[in-house]
Amino acid sequence: AAEELIKFFRTTQDPVIKVRALNGLIRRGGAKPLVPDLVKIAADPKDQPMRAMAIYSLGLIGDSAGLPPLKELAKRLDDELFFTLTPALARLCDKETLLLVERAVGAKINGVDTVNPTAPNGKDKWRIIHQMAVIGLAMAGEKKFVDETLKRTLDGFHPVVHFLAVEALASMGDKGAET
Length: 179
Hints:
Layout: H1 2-11, H2 15-28, H3 35-42, H4 48-61, H5 67-74, H6 79-91, H7 95-108, H8 124-139, H9 143-152, H10 162-175
């Protein structure tokens, strides 16, 4: 079945079939052969929804071959791209790029990433992305960020990023982080 799903992904022009084939392969653990295809899609700015899907999928697949193009995308500081890119970098445990993201985004928000979910403003996107970078660094085992994530998980993160905080806490033992 995996070969058929790979074929569907590579040959169809229908984005729904493409996404369903990819999701099926990811669930089965058979999406690694699509990493080169996903890298190509992630680099193409013409189709933003498919680009986001490719970036997200590279993170889920976890193959380090997907990391170099994601690192290049991280240099652009595109706020729309970062909502997908930051969790992908976190899942790939790329400390170096996540530290760059955390610092660059932290500078944009003067180091304050507290968000009022009922009163969003222009900087809230960047604050949420900063929170995701902090959680990603915790997932990668960076002690300072592990401690911050543990401290903030109950009430210090925006509801949008709680899923990533829970995932980080669940995976910390796997990454060798001290808890």
